[in-house]
């Protein structure tokens, strides 16, 4: 049986006795390798030693111990099976508890964690060259990085954006808005579709932020990027109706859709119309870089500000649909899908969050007249 990160995440949500049995069935070594690979990836966006420092993880399961070496620092982290002869850092923990700490439901899971620092030390004056002090400082930094990476939500989204190199903070200032709207999803097993990923920076950011989630990256062409655990890639044009339908059928439904693709207005609207029906109730559809709505070269306009052919004009229509019960019409109106299922719209500079849910709240009561003669001063 192939053990996947998704199956390991599912085990982390089980009660203790069921989780133990499930780990035994999957294979403790296979589970440990997936969990530690997640820890290793996260150390890459956390402060750590400048040089490589091996950290031994000593994991207990079923009365036995499993030893792994996590190498931290030096620009890249790696995991290898087996113990070290004389490790400067040892982290001991029960495997099922480490599993919960990395992939489990929100909470603190460190009751069995022990950290041992074995780097040489000595009294004042015993290290004239400072070599031992530097070694111990590197060991402390490695222990901190490894233990922090094995803890839930060690950094906020802005810090992740900076450390992964995405433009969502710095060139744009989106991470505060994302945290406001995505905070409630962070500890859930969400499925995220992001359209457009440049060099994969935001894909890495989202997989770290949604530690139990799955991220699907859609890009126009294969850039030969290495996908993190819990991430996969699909390639095609975001205005290709057949391609979008296949992505939705194979990978949906989604909890979150983020459009950071071409920003060409027609492409944005095509993607929304195909993908929004595949967004779960309670989910969010995000459209970045609304400024392209005003650029003629991108299918926008700075004169026809309400045309539904632009992204912002379309969002304005969604606002009308959100209040469709209030509109005065000469003929009976059959509410559209978005009229019925867009339950809110949050607008910030250059970015829109469209909330999905039932929009069935009734308008003003019938006895409230809508005629102009009802106006009074």
Briefly, what is this?
With 377 residues, this protein is an alpha/beta fold.
Number of continuous helical runs: 12
CATH superfamily of the largest domain: Vaccinia Virus protein VP39
The total count of strands amounts to: 12
Largest sheet: 7 strands, mixed
Q: Which stretches are poorly predicted, pLDDT < 50 over at least 5 residues?
A: none
How far is it from the N-terminal to the C-terminal residue, by CA?
Answer: 75 Å
- Structural category is alpha/beta
What share of residues are in beta strands? 15-25%
Structure commentary:
The structure is a single chain. The chain has 377 residues and is of the alpha/beta class. The chain has two domains: 5-149, Nonspecific Lipid-transfer Protein, Chain A (2-Layer Sandwich), CATH 3.30.1050.30; 157-356, Vaccinia Virus protein VP39 (Rossmann fold). 34% of the residues lie in helices and 20% in strands. The protein has twelve helices and twelve strands. It has helices at 5-12, 16-26, 28-43, 95-103, 131-149, 157-164, 175-182, 201-209, 241-251, 265-275, 311-322, 337-341; strands at 53-61, 64-72, 78-81, 89-94, 114-117, 191-195, 214-219, 231-235, 254-259, 279-288, 342-348, 351-356. The strands form two sheets. It has a seven-stranded mixed beta sheet, with helices on both faces. A five-stranded mixed beta sheet has the order 3-2-1-4-5. Strand 6 (191-195), helix 8 and strand 7 form a beta-alpha-beta unit. Helix 1 crosses helix 4, helix 3 (28-43) crosses helix 5 (131-149) and helix 9 packs parallel to helix 10. The longest helix has 19 residues, at 131-149. The radius of gyration is 26 Å and the shape is elongated. Pathway: Antibiotic biosynthesis. Keywords: Antibiotic biosynthesis, Methyltransferase, S-adenosyl-L-methionine, Transferase. Residues 8-109 form the Methyltransferase MycE N-terminal domain.
């Amino acid at each position: 049986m192939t053990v996947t990160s998704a199956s390991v995440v599912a085990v982390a949500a089980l009660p203790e006795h069921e989780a133990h049995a499930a780990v035994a069935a999957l294979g403790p070594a296979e589970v440990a390798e997936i969990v530690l690979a997640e820890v290793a990836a996260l150390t890459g966006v956390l402060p750590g030693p400048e040089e490589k420092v091996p950290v031994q993880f000593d994991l207990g399961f079923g009365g036995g111990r499993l030893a792994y070496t996590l190498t931290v620092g030096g620009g890249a982290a790696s995991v290898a099976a087996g113990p070290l002869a004389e490790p400067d850092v040892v982290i001991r923990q029960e495997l099922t508890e480490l599993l919960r700490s990395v992939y489990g439901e929100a909470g603190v899971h460190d009751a069995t964690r022990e950290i041992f620092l074995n780097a040489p030390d000595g009294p004042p004056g015993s290290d004239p060259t400072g070599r031992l002090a530097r070694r111990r400082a590197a060991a402390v930094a490695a222990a901190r990085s490894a233990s922090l990476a094995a803890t839930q939500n060690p950094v906020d989204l802005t810090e992740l954006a900076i450390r992964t190199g995405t433009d969502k903070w710095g060139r744009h200032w989106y991470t505060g808005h994302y945290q406001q709207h995505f905070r409630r999803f962070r500890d859930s097993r969400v499925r995220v579709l992001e359209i457009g990923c440049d060099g994969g920076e935001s894909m890495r950011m989202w997989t770290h932020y949604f530690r139990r989630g799955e991220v699907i990256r859609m890009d126009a062409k294969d850039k030969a990027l290495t996908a993190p655990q819990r991430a996969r890639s699909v390639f095609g044009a975001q205005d290709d109706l057949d391609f979008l339908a296949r992505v939705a059928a194979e990978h949906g439904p989604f909890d979150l859709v983020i459009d950071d693709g071409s920003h060409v207005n027609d492409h944005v609207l095509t993607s929304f119309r195909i993908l929004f029906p595949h967004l779960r109730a309670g989910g969010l559809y995000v459209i970045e870089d609304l400024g392209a709505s005003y650029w003629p070269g991108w299918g926008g306009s700075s004169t026809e500000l309400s045309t539904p052919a632009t992204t912002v004009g379309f969002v304005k229509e969604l606002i009308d649909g959100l209040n469709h019960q209030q509109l005065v019409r000469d003929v009976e109106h059959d509410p559209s899908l978005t009229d019925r299922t867009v339950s809110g719209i949050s607008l910030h500079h250059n970015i829109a969050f469209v909330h999905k849910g039932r929009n069935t709240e009734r308008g003003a009561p019938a006895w409230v007249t809508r005629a102009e003669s009802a106006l009074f001063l």
